[in-house]
Every structure is written in structure tokens, then in C-alpha cells.
Amino acid sequence: MTEFEDINLEEMIGEGFDIVTEEIDLSDLSETNKNSEQKIFPILPVRNMVMFPNVVIPITAGRKTSIQLLEEAQKNGELIGIVSQKNSDLENPSDKDLYLVGTLAKIIKIIKLPEGNITAITKGFHRFKIKRIVENQPYFKAEISKLKDSKPKNREEYEALLENVKDLASKIIELDPNIPNAANFAIKNISNKDDLLNFICTNANFSSPDKQKLLEEKNLMARANKCYEMMHEDFRKLELRNQIHQKTSKDLDKQQREYFLNQQIRTIQEELGGGPEGDIEDLINKAKSKKWSQEVEEHFQKEINRLQRQNPNSPDYNVQRNYLDFFTDLPWETYTKDVFDIAKAEKVLDKAHFGLEDIKKRILEHMAVLKLKNNMKSPILLLVGPPGVGKTSLGKSIADALGRKYVRLSLGGLHDESEIRGHRKTYIGAMAGRILQSIKKSGTSNPVIVLDEMDKIGQGLHGDPSSALLEVLDPEQNSSFYDNFLEMGYDLSKVMFIATANSLSTIQTPLLDRTEIIQIAGYTLEEKIEIAKRHLIKKQQEENGLDSKSFKLGNPELKHIIEAHTSESGVRTLEKRIANIARWVALQTALSKEYEPKISIEKVDEILGVPRPKSLSEITDSPGVVTGLAWTSVGGDILFIESILSSGKGTLTMTGNLGTVMKESATIALEYIKARHDELGISQEDLDKKNIHVHVPEGATPKDGPSAGIAMLTSMVSSFKNKKVKSHLAMTGEITLRGKVLPVGGIKEKLLAATRAGVKEVILCEANRKDVEEIKKDYLRNLKVHYVKRMEEVIDIAIEK
């Protein structure tokens, strides 16, 4: 539609005005021809419109001069000249700003509007051309000359062309939603062909300059052709626009339908509590509080944008949301402040752990190094020792001393590499590895993580977890530890790892190379008594609902429990025995029975059962029986090796579930005796006519290793010479075919086992002297150690004269 100053034609039609000439009463225009003969007329400049002859059109005037012109012209009943402005933005145009060709028009009616504006219903009559402007004030007046239209020579061709123009105009009206339906009605009801052309030129969606060119065209055939060409161009644009609209509207309809359905789902989810929009907003809010690098920020934005593009009903949406939940829960660059107070740390360790002086000293040294270096790039501590000696609790105490969060990660039974490195997030049920899960659980990026039971890691079909730990425990690599689920590096260099193990034999050598091994052998009798008094009794009283006065165990009773009812390096079994006593006391209390709070040794045996201690004097009170020392994964222990002779042909028989190495040690011992029988005082006849049987009791327990070599040889010599081995004497060492005694390992555990069993003397290889000197003197109190280099020395010391 064309705008006429401040009001457009559609609005005027809406007010009830019609632009069809046949519906206007023109009976009052009888003097039109007479008035049109004059030469000077008022000139009304209009904007954004061009008026054509024989067309009725409303004109809204807002300028004071225009209002004055219209009112005076209506009052005087004179025609006015309507011309278009060249520049529609000009408020007060000059004569040079007006087109010279316009249309004479009659004012039919004037309607006053709010705010002082008026609307004049006008009808055009003739085209004219301005010769000269005669007045400028209060409005333009000009001398004009009428312009006549040139009639077409071929009337039929002209009318046929106008029919095409009419049809095309109808099509445009149907395609263009901006043109009112009244225009189509008017086109169909205009009978005069010339008036039809002028009406279409007036209301077509042409620019004002283009309409002005049509008005200035005197040849009606040429005007019709130009009009048709411009209409055809508009029609093609409308068709193309509608095609694009129809094509896109199908996709939009589908998208809108999905959008509305999703909106309904979201509304329902929000009513039920939360929804996709809430999830995304929560994730973004969580991310705002994170302290992370630019690289991590960019990765998060990329992943959150991916989540926003996904359909909330698709399975991938939940996978992506779970990933971002974990991503934002990780404590990126969030650290607790270390408390490197060595004196305080020493007090914490002493309070929580009695004994283990060398171990606590090494831990304090480790912390001192960390304080001076101010980083975690130092060897990973690996605490190795039997169960129950406090390896895991030492890690907890270290965390308390440093003021860090503590997390325990059990590695026992792991057989899948993804347990350490995590699964790729595209898999169903994917999750991060246990390392990052522990970091998330702690809430900081520098906790103390205890890797418990490192020696019990398995190996399955899905990779080797031990190998995956190589990157975790390498200070040079773990600053960018890659987890498959996280899909980017995470800094583990500030994490303090403390590993524990019962044995080093099953741990990979490269993994051991990344750790600093600290051996924890076990506790002496006195230390166990002190631990029980300080920690175990109080703990069991609390766990069983008893107060501190419910029962008491003195030193003799505790010593009896340790010697007669336990046999271990640690204190775990001791705690179980104290728990048995606490439950007995709880039962008496619940039944309101009287009992003596001071538990006696007799009452201990009544509660715990009949003790079965190993009496060395009774067991070794016959030739051929020797006490040996062995190392096991749960600490040191004693074992008995016995041999006996029988008539035969000098054959050797071995029983007791012995391994290959122990069998070889027995064979070497017998061959040594045969080679040195004269020096040992053994006759050749006994060697030829006596079979010898070697047995190690507790046959259900597998036994292997070279440590029993000297004990087997001593047992055989004792049987052949029919002389007893000293009671309360034990020995350990490997032998060679020529009688040399070689050193063995596990000396501290073996000597502690000897003291627990009541051994008074021990025979060791001379090369093991340095191992004994490293043991605290209090541990070896009342224990005499003999150092030997050859078997002859062993036999001289061990066999009674």
C-alpha cells in the first residue's frame, strides 16, 4: 500500500471510504469543466503518492499550509493541483522540490481527525504541467497547462493488454497479503478501461518515482505496457518469495511442532522438579565458581554447547549431561593449604602410632623435603609389611599432619585398566577411573590418596591396571594424567600418593622403580602391649557400648594373650581377641551378671579357649628336629624340620608340601654329608644302609625358598649322629654344595618371630650382620645371634655334645 503523509490507503478503507469511482456521488461537480478552464490553481505537495485521473483517493494533511489550502479550496469549490515531492523527507519543500506533472482534483469531502489533522477525499480529473509558480505564501499557486492522453491506434490490442494487466493485478492481490481485498473488488467493478489503468497505477506497489514516470507518459498504450512490465516483475518476486516461504514453512512447521512438544515436556519436568533448561543452567552456574585454565574453560563451553543442541529425550543427552556433571564436580585447581609443621606432624604420628620409630622418622624426612621443595615431585612412598602393622592408618595420619583430605583407594582385585584410566564416555555405563573419582570425592586437587593392597592387583582381558598406574605414580608424567572419560589431561602432581603392600614379589619392577620402599616388619611384644593399652582396649570398649571401667587387662594378661592366643607381626588378631573379651563383658552386663572387671589369665583362657603354644623344649627334645625361621606375607614365623632314619639303601624322601627350591636344598644337604661324612663323624655304612626321610609339619601349607638349607642339613646330621639339637635355638640360611652359608632376606621379620616363639639363640650368615645391626636393640633383647660362614660352624653350635 502507498502511504499518504501520515495515513495509508488501507487505513482509510478501514474507515469506510471507498476508492471506486462508481460509488461516489459526483452530482455536485457540475461546474468542474468551467473551473478547469482557469490557468492558475492552488498546488498541494504530497509525499509517497502519485495521483492519477479519474481515481478517488483520500489524502491526509498535517502541515498547516496544506490544511489551509484544502479548507479554502472546498469552501470556494475550486479544483486543486496535486503534485508529488521529489524528496518525501522534506517538511517544507520549495518549488524546485516538486515534480512538474501532476493531476487536477476535486475535493469531495473533508474529515477532521484528532490532533488537528484532516483527511480530504479527492477525485482526479486531468493531468497537468506546471508552467510557473506565481505564489509561495500561504501555499503554492501555479499557472498550469492541461495535458491530453494519446489514445491508442489499435483499440483491441489496447483492451487485450489491459485485460492482462487486470488479470495480473488480481493474481498479485491474491499473492500479496499487504494489499486489501477491497482492491480486487474495485478492479473487477471498474468498467472504463482508461480508469482501470489509472486505478492500478495508483495502487500498485511501485515506487513513487516509477509511478511519476507512468503519470508523465501521455501514450496510454505505452503507459499500459510499462505498467504491465513492472507488475510482471513484482509478480515474479512475489512468486519467488512465496515459494521460499512455503518451502521453509514446512520445515518451520515441523520444528515448531517439535518445539512446542519439547516445551510441554520441559514444563511438565519443571513442575515435577527440574528439566533440561534447569540442568544446563545449573551446570553453567557451577562452572562460574570454578578456578580453571583457559583450555579447560574452552573445553567446557564446547561441551555445554553440544548439550544445548541435543534433544533432551535422546540417550546421548543423558550421557553428555552425566559427563558435564562429573566435569564440573572435579576440584579444578582447588587446593587445601599444606601445614608443614614438622613438630606437629611428629606429635600426630606419635599419638596415633606407638613404635615404628624408623618409619615415622622417614615420613618426617619426606615431609621436610616437601616443605623445602614446595612441590610433590618426590618418590611415592610404598609401605611394605604384614597385615595389621598400621600401613593404611599411617597414610591417614600423614594426611592429618599435612592438613589435607584423605582418600583410601583399594586396588585389591582390580583386573581392568579402565578402573584406573576410566572408560570412553560413548560406552553405556561409562565412568571415570578410580583416581579421578577419588579426587572428586576429596573435593581438592591435592589430597593424600592411599593406594591400598598394590600387590594384589590382578590382570584380566582388558589391560593391565599395574601398567596404567605407571603414569599415575610418575612425578614427571602425572601433571597431565589422561583419563579416557574426562578426555583431557588432569594435574595429579600435587596429589600425595602413599601405596601399601604385603609383598613386593607380585609388583612390577617399573612400578617399584617409581616408589620409595619403606619396610614395616612388625611389633615386639612390648610394643604390642603398649598399643593394646593405648588404643585397642579403648576402641573395643567404645565399639561394644562399654565404658572405660567395664574391664581391665594388665600387662601379664596382655602378654599371655599375645603369646598364647596370637601369632602375627601386627596387632589385628590381638584386637580380635580383645574384642572377644569385650563382647563377653557386654553379655554379662546385659544379663546383669556379676563379674570381676580385672580380667585374669585364667578368665582369658576361659573366654578365648585353651591356648596351644609351641613349646620348643618339648618339640625339639629328640634327635633330628630343628627350628627354622621363615618369612611369609604376613610376617615372620618359625617352622620345624624333622628327619628320621630307617633301614634301606640310602634313599632320600621329602614330604610337607615342599617347593622345588626346598627339595633341592635337602638334596644338597645329603650330598654334602656324603662328601664330608668322615669329618662329620658319620659312617659310610649308615649312609649306604639307612634311608632318610625329611618332613616339614603343617603339610597343607606350601613352603619354598632356600632359607631352610642349613636347618635341613643340621637335622640330617642330628639324625645320623643320634644327637639332639639345642632347644630354644633357631636358624636360617642357604647352603652351597661345598658347605658355605649364604645370606637370606626377611631377617627382621624372622628375628621378631623368633622372639615371639621364645627362641634364645639364632644362627645367621655372617653377611646378614648388617641387617641385624639395623634392627632396634630393644627388639632383640634376650636374643643371642651367632654369625657363621660354613656349615661346620653351624653343626658345632647347634648339636649338643
TrEMBL record:
Location of the Lon proteolytic domain: 620-801
Lon N-terminal domain: residues covered: 41-235
Matches recorded under PROSITE patterns: LON_N (PS51787), LON_PROTEOLYTIC (PS51786), LON_SER (PS01046)
Keyword Cytoplasm listed: yes
SUPFAM superfamilies in alphabetical order: P-loop containing nucleoside triphosphate hydrolases, PUA domain-like, Ribosomal protein S5 domain 2-like
Top enzyme category: hydrolase
Bilayer-spanning residue ranges: none
CDD domains named in the record: RecA-like_Lon
Main localisation: cytoplasm
Residue numbers annotated as active site: 707, 750
Enzyme Commission (EC) number: 3.4.21.53
Compartments (UniProt record): Cytoplasm
NCBIfam families the record matches: lon
Function, in words: ATP-dependent serine protease that mediates the selective degradation of mutant and abnormal proteins as well as certain short-lived regulatory proteins. Required for cellular homeostasis and for survival from DNA damage and developmental changes induced by stress. Degrades polypeptides processively to yield small peptide fragments that are 5 to 10 amino acids long. Binds to DNA in a double-stranded, site-specific manner.
The family this protein is said to belong to: Belongs to the peptidase S16 family.
Quaternary structure and partners: Homohexamer. Organized in a ring with a central cavity.
Name under which the protein is recorded: Lon protease
